Amino acid sequence: MDETQRCNPINRIQSSRRLTSLATTGDSDTLFPMAPRFHRIVRKTRRDGSEVSPWIKYLIFGFNILFWILGLMITVIGIYAWIEKDAFDNFGRLTTGGTLLFDPSLFFVLVGVFMCFIGFAGCVGSLRENTCLLLFFSFSLAVIFFSQLAFGTMVFIYREKVKREGEKQLMIMIQSYRDDPDLNNMIDWIQRSWLHCCGVNHYRNWESNIYFNCSSKSVGSIEACGVPASCCRTEYFHNNKHCGYGTLEPLAGTHMIYTEGCLPKASQWFERNIVSVAIIIVIFAVLQIVNICFAQNLRNDILVQKAKWTWHTHPLMNYHRY
């Protein structure tokens, strides 16, 4: 081609169109003869299966949705109990003497809210395959598990000190017996239905309560020098709701009430049912460990699946050099 043909505008336009056509068709050998050759891979194989196990995914989801609903119900019950006894208006009175720590309704609210958070993280994390929520779920269960383990170990090592502190707190509960309806009902259930006991170490522990102390006679209290009706033996309680009145008098008979304290009775009950208690503790611990393992396994599967997606969608994965 001479200089005239190269300078011709029509020939230049045709050459430009030919280069554009070669570039769009991918003929690299014509455009760049010295460049390395690439061959486009046409994948006709079946798409790889998911790394995420549906069994683990929906097992975690089903378990935690029940856990979530149970936590919500416990929270509602605790809030309802607080509203019924006007705890929000009498919050200052409940905090006096440390009785707030043993308020059953507050315990229900705290446990229920914590269960809701854990259940929500497990449900949404497994269903939506959210690695952050699954990490929070497994981490929370791990914290609970090791906290329980540490608490049990400390109780075993310092059991005498724990026993003295528990006795002190139980005395505070007896002193606040009439101040909190929930505490009242809980103590009545322990004394009448569960342990069949009266007081902490002895039935005379009820003298520390201002309503049952003999000094209340001066203000006309009919419960003075007596014990609650829940201390009465079953065969006498059905016929006489006042069977505990006057039992703290020096010469009063005690054949109609339980005279043994609840703390010794609780120790005896624990010794008789040590196998059942141990089985329940082991089952509860195994469930926690299994859920931690399942959550971590599901999280790892999700991360592996995301890595595969990233690798398969990379532009260079559609070509190989030869």
TrEMBL record:
It holds the Pfam family Tetraspanin. The keyword Cell membrane does not apply. The chain crosses the membrane at residues 58-83, 104-127, 133-158, 274-298. Its main location: membrane. InterPro entries: Tetraspanin/Peripherin, Tetraspanin_EC2_sf. It is found in: Membrane. The keyword Membrane applies. SUPFAM superfamilies: Tetraspanin (SSF48652). Keywords: Membrane, Transmembrane, Transmembrane helix. This is Tetraspanin.
